[in-house]
């Protein structure tokens, strides 16, 4: 049992072992976000199942993000308690909730409460996993490592889109998506339970620029007062560099979180794509984003700079978001037009995000490397709070979604099924229809209706009689549903594209706010200056190692 709780490493691991721990963290993050995002793949089905309004569904996400914000603050205690147990056992909780809880929720309130519990655990792991990545990755490889970590939410979304787009037609019950996801989550929980470890506080509380610092880090470890290093943690993190940077990325990612929660709704209601097609568009977005995160991380580490990437990525994201929103009022936009637009958008978002994650942890380290989890907790709280507030505002900007989501699919299906009959009824005087509704055998009303059909549709009497009989055979429930909801669905369909366009402009505003806040973060703009800093650091390390070697008779950790 102690092996399942005591996970600390007293020596910095060799490369192979270190990569194993990093791989577990990345896979754990992927699975966690797969679990968190799975409702988005079948959102329309969930709304129909529980008879939710669109705002109610949105506010489930709002509450989840709010709960996740405060659990992120709680995860700041990882600097005292460690990180690995939070990740491992958190995966067990979310796996059980996804497999057994959410798909069996008896009503919409219970569904919302269970989703909030998943979000609570997600908020904790959101902080603990990048803290582990930072611990096992020196600064020279930080952007690459964070590029892999940021695969978590992106590949989680990609896995969700890929699985759902290939299984929804075979397993049409929306609950099957939760069952598949929950099984995967519990498998990864077992791997993390037995395989994940973390550095002891004496090792992780130091700044490590390159693997050449390993001997010095281990030599210093015995002399570190861990409790003193983490005194007054929140006060140390309350700086413009930390808060401003966290707010910058939070508003930059408003479009990302909108895509996660509402892309399927957006593409199915505005453009008429099927759920499989909408998730297929998501496949391109998340896939391109995932590949770009890795490539950009490697290039950023090679050049030793972060800020130029953030600047280029933000500018490119602004341009592509504007291109994307320009299609909101063009409902005939094709599938592959969206594919290339969002693929280019994904590239620019990755160009900004992977270097930002590296730069943020380096900014926190500049203040106090012993408080990495605390700094990440501040980031986690801010990003979840901003997402909660932005999603809360969404229904006030896109006010017409409820009729489309709740009734649009059925109205479209019935309108297509009874198209000819509806056209026939449309040319008959309403008073005449009312009379026939009360007494289908009324000869005067029947004769008048036939005459109106003959005149309006230019057909003979026999054809008109046949069409009237076909219209009379439409089930009353279907006709009543169309009479009750068709008009509001048509009005919503006309208003919604423009309202969504307004929301995408809000996303552009968030991306623009990101730009000036790049300058509060640490790091160089020019690779030559970054190389000079590295050479200076290495000279200090060599000098300190030489001094330690002399004072200890030449005995240092290998």
Automatic annotation (TrEMBL):
<keyword id="KW-1133">Transmembrane helix</keyword>
<feature type="transmembrane region" description="Helical">
    <location>
        <begin position="376"/>
        <end position="398"/>
    </location>
</feature>
<feature type="transmembrane region" description="Helical">
    <location>
        <begin position="145"/>
        <end position="164"/>
    </location>
</feature>
<protein>
    <submittedName>
        <fullName>MFS family permease</fullName>
    </submittedName>
</protein>
<keyword id="KW-0812">Transmembrane</keyword>
<dbReference type="InterPro" id="IPR036259">
    <property type="entry name" value="MFS_trans_sf"/>
</dbReference>
<feature type="transmembrane region" description="Helical">
    <location>
        <begin position="84"/>
        <end position="103"/>
    </location>
</feature>
<dbReference type="InterPro" id="IPR020846">
    <property type="entry name" value="MFS_dom"/>
</dbReference>
<feature type="transmembrane region" description="Helical">
    <location>
        <begin position="311"/>
        <end position="329"/>
    </location>
</feature>
<feature type="transmembrane region" description="Helical">
    <location>
        <begin position="281"/>
        <end position="299"/>
    </location>
</feature>
<dbReference type="Pfam" id="PF07690">
    <property type="entry name" value="MFS_1"/>
</dbReference>
<feature type="transmembrane region" description="Helical">
    <location>
        <begin position="56"/>
        <end position="77"/>
    </location>
</feature>
<feature type="transmembrane region" description="Helical">
    <location>
        <begin position="503"/>
        <end position="522"/>
    </location>
</feature>
<feature type="transmembrane region" description="Helical">
    <location>
        <begin position="176"/>
        <end position="196"/>
    </location>
</feature>
<feature type="transmembrane region" description="Helical">
    <location>
        <begin position="20"/>
        <end position="36"/>
    </location>
</feature>
<feature type="domain" description="Major facilitator superfamily (MFS) profile">
    <location>
        <begin position="21"/>
        <end position="438"/>
    </location>
</feature>
<feature type="transmembrane region" description="Helical">
    <location>
        <begin position="242"/>
        <end position="269"/>
    </location>
</feature>
<feature type="transmembrane region" description="Helical">
    <location>
        <begin position="335"/>
        <end position="356"/>
    </location>
</feature>
<dbReference type="InterPro" id="IPR011701">
    <property type="entry name" value="MFS"/>
</dbReference>
<dbReference type="GO" id="GO:0022857">
    <property type="term" value="F:transmembrane transporter activity"/>
</dbReference>
<keyword id="KW-0472">Membrane</keyword>
<dbReference type="GO" id="GO:0005886">
    <property type="term" value="C:plasma membrane"/>
</dbReference>
<feature type="transmembrane region" description="Helical">
    <location>
        <begin position="109"/>
        <end position="133"/>
    </location>
</feature>
């Amino acid at each position: 049992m102690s092996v399942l709780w005591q996970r600390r490493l007293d020596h910095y691991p060799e490369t192979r072992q270190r990569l194993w721990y990093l791989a577990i963290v990345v896979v754990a993050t992927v699975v966690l976000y797969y679990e968190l995002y799975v409702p988005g793949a079948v959102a329309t089905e969930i709304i129909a199942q529980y008879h939710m309004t669109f705002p109610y569904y949105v506010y489930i996400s709002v509450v989840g993000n709010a709960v996740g914000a405060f659990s992120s603050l709680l995860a700041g205690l990882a600097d005292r308690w460690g990180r690995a147990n939070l990740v491992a056992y958190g995966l067990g909780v979310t796996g059980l909730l996804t497999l057994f809880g959410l798909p069996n929720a008896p009503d919409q309130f219970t569904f919302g409460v269970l989703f909030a519990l998943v979000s609570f655990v997600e908020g904790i792991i959101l902080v603990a996993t990048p803290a582990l990545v930072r611990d096992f990755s020196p600064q020279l490889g930080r952007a690459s490592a964070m590029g892999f970590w940021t695969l978590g939410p992106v590949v989680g979304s990609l896995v969700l889109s890929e699985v759902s787009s290939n299984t929804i037609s075979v397993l049409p019950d929306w609950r099957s998506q939760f069952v598949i996801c929950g099984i995967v989550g519990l498998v990864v929980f077992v791997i993390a339970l037995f395989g994940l470890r973390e550095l002891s506080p004496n090792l992780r509380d130091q700044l490590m620029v390159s693997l050449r610092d390993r001997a010095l880090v281990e030599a210093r470890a015995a002399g570190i007062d861990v409790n003193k290093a983490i005194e007054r943690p929140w006060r140390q993190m309350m700086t413009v560099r930390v808060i401003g940077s966290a707010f910058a990325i939070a508003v930059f990612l408003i479009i990302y979180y909108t895509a996660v929660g509402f892309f399927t709704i957006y593409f199915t209601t505005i453009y008429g794509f099927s759920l499989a097609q909408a998730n297929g568009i998501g496949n391109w977005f998340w896939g391109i984003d995932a590949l770009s995160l890795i490539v950009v991380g490697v290039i950023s580490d090679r050049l030793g700079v972060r800020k130029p990437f953030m600047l280029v990525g933000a500018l490119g994201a602004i341009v592509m978001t504007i291109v994307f929103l320009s299609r909101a009022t063009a409902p005939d936009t094709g599938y592959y037009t969206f594919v290339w637009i969002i693929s280019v958008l994904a590239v620019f978002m990755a160009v900004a995000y992977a270097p930002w994650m590296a730069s943020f942890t380096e900014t926190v380290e500049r203040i106090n490397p012993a408080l990495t989890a605390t700094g990440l907790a501040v980031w986690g709280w801010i990003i979840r709070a901003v997402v909660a507030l932005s999603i809360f505002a969404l229904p006030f900007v896109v006010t017409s979604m409820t009729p489309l989501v709740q009734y649009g699919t059925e109205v479209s299906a019935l309108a297509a099924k009874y198209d000819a009959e509806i056209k026939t009824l449309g040319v008959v005087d309403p008073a005449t229809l009312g009379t026939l509704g009360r007494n289908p055998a009324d000869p005067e009303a029947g004769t008048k209706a036939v005459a109106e059909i003959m005149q309006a549709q230019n057909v003979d009497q026999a054809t008109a009689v046949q069409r009237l009989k076909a219209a009379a055979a439409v089930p009353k429930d279907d006709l009543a549903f169309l009479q009750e909801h068709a008009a509001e669905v048509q009005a919503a369909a006309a208003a919604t594209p423009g309202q969504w366009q307004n929301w995408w402009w809000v996303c552009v505003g968030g991306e623009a706010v990101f730009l000036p806040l790049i300058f509060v973060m640490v790091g160089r703009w020019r690779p030559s200056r970054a190389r000079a800093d590295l050479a200076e650091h290495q000279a200090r390390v060599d000098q300190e190692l030489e001094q330690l070697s002399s004072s200890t008779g030449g005995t240092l950790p290998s």
